[in-house]
Structures are given as C-alpha cells and as structure tokens.
Amino acid sequence: MTRIQSGGRTAAVSAYIGIGANLGDPVAQVRGSFARLAVEVPDTRLAGRSRLYRNPPMGPPDQPDYVNAVARLHTRLTPRELLHALQAIEQRCGRVRDGQRWGPRLLDLDLLLYGDRVLDEPGLAVPHPGVAERNFVVLPLQELAPGLEIPGCGPLAALARAFDPAALIPVEESGDSEAEAAAVEPPPGRRAGAGA
Q1: What digits encode the pLDDT tens for the residues 77-125?
Q2: Any coiled-coil ranges, and where (predicted)?
C-alpha cells in the first residue's frame, strides 16, 4: 500500500515490524509486543502477526537463543515517526542502546518494510538492511504476506525458497490472549465477514 494524501488526511500504509528478544522471558516479551504495538503506537492498528520462532543468535554465540516474530501494522505515521514510536516501546521495556551490534536484547523492534518505500537516511533504512538474508524475518513475513514484493530484493516467495523452514523452531503458544486477539483488526476498509 503506498502512502498517499487524500483530502488532507494521510492514507494508511502497511508496515512490517520485526520483533526479537533473548533476555528475560523472550516469549512474553515478543507476545507483549503485539499488544504494545496495538495500543501504544498512535494512528496505527495491528493488522496481523506471525507465529513465534526460536532461533540461534545472529551475533556472538555466547548468548541465549532468540524468539522472533513479525507484525503487520496499518499506520498513518511517517516512517521516521513510526521508528521513533518503536524505539520508545523498546526503551519502556528496558532496552538500553549500548552500541553493541547483534548483542543480547530484552526487546528489538525493527522497521522492516514501509509500503513500497525505499529510504536510506541517517538512522533510517527501509527495507531494513539484511531483511532478505534472515530466515527469522523472511519466513514469518511469508506467513503474513506470501505475495509480498520486497523493494530492491524481489518476491518474498523466491527469497523464502532459499531457507530451510526446519531451521526455525516454532514456539508452542498456549493460545492467544483475548486482548492480543482483539487488538488485531482487519485492514482499513475491510471488516470481519466482509468477504475475501
């Protein structure tokens, strides 16, 4: 969905957020992130979520495994505003940015995609760098949007074929909380039961 102006009001854009944690209770951190995205990000709705997956850390091996997932948002925020909202959630959850790349995290929220936009600005790159090379991003993204095209990388389905799905371990979830399920809404203009 491309960001457009309509009668002085910005139309919603689909944005995809990578979620990861490997400190504290990573499953609770990631699951809680879905609810936080739904209620703490202004002018934004949580429109979908992938399953949770456990995978080895990408960085230093002397850290716990990660739990990762992807969320789809419909937002009226600009990419920069959305990034700031994600960083504010990380900070409220105890994330301290110490400059360590790929180190352990209480919570990591990455702006993966923002519509079909390509941005390379100080502190903001969309698509997120390396998005097409990470199984813990590509495979959960495919759950949410199998027909998605990643700008500059190609069709998601083609990217997904490069990964072994068995490399990610699905996290058993004992059922979604009612609050989380209620937070996921259909895309703007569509309501449940309004056809496919």
Answers
A1: 999 999 999 999 998 987 676 666 666 788 999 999 999 999 999 999 9
A2: none
Domain assignment present for 185: no
**Which domain range does residue 41 map to?**
5-171
**Among 31, 72, 105, 134, which one carries the catalytic annotation?**
105
Whether 191 sits among the annotated catalytic residues: the reply is no
Long-range contacts of 187-193 (CB under 8 A, 24+ apart): 187/12, 187/14, 187/47, 187/74, 188/11, 188/12, 188/45, 188/74
- Domain count along the chain: 1
Active site residue 97: no
The count of C-alpha atoms lying within 13 angstroms of the C-alpha of 53, restricted to the half-sphere facing its C-beta, is 26
Identify the active-site residue in 36, 49, 72, 108: 108
Q: Which regions of 33-95 does DSSP assign to beta strands (E)? A: 44-49, 53-55, 66-75
Q: Which of 3, 36, 49, 110 is catalytic?
A: 110
Q: 5-14, 112-121, 143-152, 176-185: which has the minimum mean pLDDT?
A: 176-185
Note if 95 is an active site residue.
Answer: yes
Residue 36 lies in a domain: yes
The pTM of the full predicted model, rounded to 2 decimals, is 0.84
110 is annotated as an active-site residue: yes
Catalytic residue (choose from 3, 45, 49, 95): 95
In tens, the pLDDT along 157-195 reads: 999 999 998 889 999 877 554 444 444 443 333 333 333
User: Would you say residue 32 lies in a domain?
Assistant: yes
Q: Is residue 187 part of a domain?
A: no
